[in-house]
Design goal:
The structure holds two protein chains of two kinds. In chain A, 84% of the residues lie in helices and 0% in strands. By secondary structure, chain A is mostly helical. The radius of gyration of chain A is 48 Å and the shape is rod-shaped. The N and C termini of chain A lie far apart (128 Å). Chain B has helices at residues 4-26, 29-47, 55-78, 119-132, 135-146, 151-158, 162-182. Classes of the chains: A mainly alpha, B mainly alpha.
Chain lengths: 129, 187
Amino acid sequence: MNLEEQFAARLCRTLDQGACDLDADIALRLQASRWRALDLRHCPREAGELALAGTTVTASRFGGRSLRTLLTLLAVLLGMGGTYYWNGFEQADINEEIDSALLADDLPPKAYLDPGFQAWLSHYAQSAR
Amino acid sequence: MVSRSQLSEFLASVERRAFKQAQFAVRDAETALDIVQDSMMRLAEKYGDRPEEELPLLFQRILQNAIRDHYRRARTRAGRVIALASLDPSDDDSADPLETLEIDAETSRFASPEGALTQTETLAHIEMALQQLPPRQREAFLLRYWEGLDIAETATVMGCTEGSVKTHCSRATHALAIALEAKGIRP
């Protein structure tokens, strides 16, 4: 520490003493000012709550939109599923009609799976020509 | 992030020096109280969520700006130009007549002042000498030596270069030494 700094340090020690010995009235008013300032403090907890509240509002707004989208998508999927299911019934009806026709025929359906019967049909068709 | 109790503790630790700083600058206790209150409120309101270590520098910037604002308002109200050329950050007080003073080894005896002056009287003389310093010199001296800011921090608060801070501090110290010697205080 050079001479200038030593001199300044001594002056400041005396100034510190002066600051400590402030009038009681001044000290009280400073204290009141401090409390007033603390009341204005930007409170992180409150800010967090506010931020959270904002997020909640945003989320609910966003959630509302999502819900509508989700419901629309669900309706489309239900429609697609219903259509597929309905088409399945129609195919089942067609198959039922074929089955009925086959069962009603004299020829047993298993005959069509018989390789010998297939060969006979082929030979019969050629002979008929 | 500073808690309410930490902020309260910080403000309590600086409020008295802040008041004295403002009083040295504006020479009026009521105005000084207003300046300190505004500074504390501004710090709490706008920077209450900053880390604790940032508070000293922030507070000093707010306080010094509040003091400068007071000067500007006073100048406007009075309709005259107050001799505040040294408030200009680019100014280096080149006309300081005390510049050539050198502090010799005798200044080290200030810790135990001789003569009939009491400590209260000594303090009054020191405060008077501080009040009579050019504003920029006083600001640099108080920030650097009383508030304990380093040169870079002082330069940041004052909005000037580090070289200017050194110059202001040196001139302020020399001027104080001369003024105190003139009052019979031989540090």
